[in-house]
Amino acid sequence: MTTVLGIETSCDETAAAVVDDGITVRSNIVASQIELHRKYGGVVPEIASRAHIENLDTIVQEALEKAACQPGDVDVIAVTNRPGLVPALLIGVTAAKTLSWAWQRPLVGVDHIQAHAYSPAINLSKPPWPAIALIVSGGHTSLFRVDSPTGLQLLGATLDDAAGEAFDKVAAILGLPYPGGPSIERTARDGDPKVIQFPRTMLHRDSLDFSFSGIKTAVLYHVHGHGKTSGGLEKLSSTDIADIAASFQQAVVDVLVNKTMLAVAQTGLSCVVLGGGVAANSVLRSSLEDACGMRDLTFIAAPWAYCTDNAAMIAALGYHMWQQGDLAGLDLDALANSSTRVA
Ligand code: KG4
Ligand code: ZN
Q1: Is the pTM of this model over 0.90?
Q2: What CA–CA distance (Å, rounded) separates 86 from 146?
Q3: What is the Å distance from ligand 2's center to 182 Cα?
Q4: Which fold has domain 127-302?
């Protein structure tokens, strides 16, 4: 058995986890900084980095204790080193290097997006690959062909806003609290998704790329009375806001489901996996499940706890990288971009 300690500090969650053999999650501790960033309406890198410094030690201790794991039982240390906010990433990377050196254990640098793509496979005894992976988060919206835990081919990505970013920005336009995704989902439950036909940007007919900036602007214009006034929000009832949230959510889900089915048609694969923070959205999960069911495709969504940022997915993918000898040295760098963003 190989025990991996995972560490994740790429954005506003300080997280640590202990995972055996890339499958069995023994602990998964996440400290969210949402309250610290709420008043700014988004993540402030310096505040995130400072909070990681304050919390990481305790979070790692907690992950080890919950797993009943002594430092000597850890075989490998895996840390997110890309993509993300560099000042935030650096805290996790520095801590992981220190532990690797102090405990004399191998170090693995994990790509956060690859880990989101791996997250639907956590807990599965039989890997789901090859599969189409739809990864929808606050920073990324991508479709991959996945042939193995580390074998990803980028098929398409957003050309502007990520889906989660669109949820966050539209929530701000509607005066709903940060983070926007869960707020929109909650508000949309009381709304009718058919009331407003927001644009579903599909780009070129065969394209697997996405664009979500248009729908965000369409919501803004709708709220401002099609640009005739600068305000508008105060004129809307709570039913209007619920209808806008539901119609926006449906439009984003329609595009994500359509493009994923296009990727299936283009590749002939018969399995679809879903990961990333927006994968926590129940309308997206059920719509994709229905679309897959109609085509006899296997559908696997990441378990809810592994959708938003967590270190279990980092430890799990780290195990496979370690197995392949993909180790990092003490010169491991924190990088803003993903290794998956290749042509
Ligand atoms: O994966 P994640 O935790 O962080 C990044 O890697 O970006 O994703 C965070 C994003 C945020 O934009 C948040 O609004 C969105 O995921 N999100 C949701 C839901 N829960 C989180 N979006 C839609 N519906 C949700 N229930
Ligand atoms: Zn993420």
Answers
A1: yes
A2: 27
A3: 15
A4: Nucleotidyltransferase; domain 5 (3.30.420)
Give the CA angle between residues 184, 218, 233 to the nearest 5°.
Answer: 60
Q: Please indicate whether the domains covering 3-119+306-323 and 127-302 agree at the CATH topology level.
A: yes
Q: Which amino acid is at 28?
A: N
pLDDT per residue as tens digits for the range 284-336: 999 999 999 999 999 999 999 999 999 999 999 999 999 999 999 999 999 99
Residue 111 Cα to ligand 1 middle (Å):
18
Which residue in 26, 94, 84, 82 sits closest to 319, CA to CA? 26
Query: What does the domain layout of the chain look like in residue ranges?
Result: 3-119+306-323, 127-302
Distance of CA 176 from the midpoint of ligand 1 (Å)? 15
Q: Edge-to-edge, what's the strand order for the sheet holding 131-136? A: 151-157, 141-148, 131-136, 271-275, 298-301
d(CA 156, CA 120): 19
Which residue from 13, 134, 137, 142 has its CB within 8 A of the most atoms of ligand 1, so it is best to mutate? 137
The architecture that CATH gives domain 3-119+306-323 is 2-Layer Sandwich (3.30)
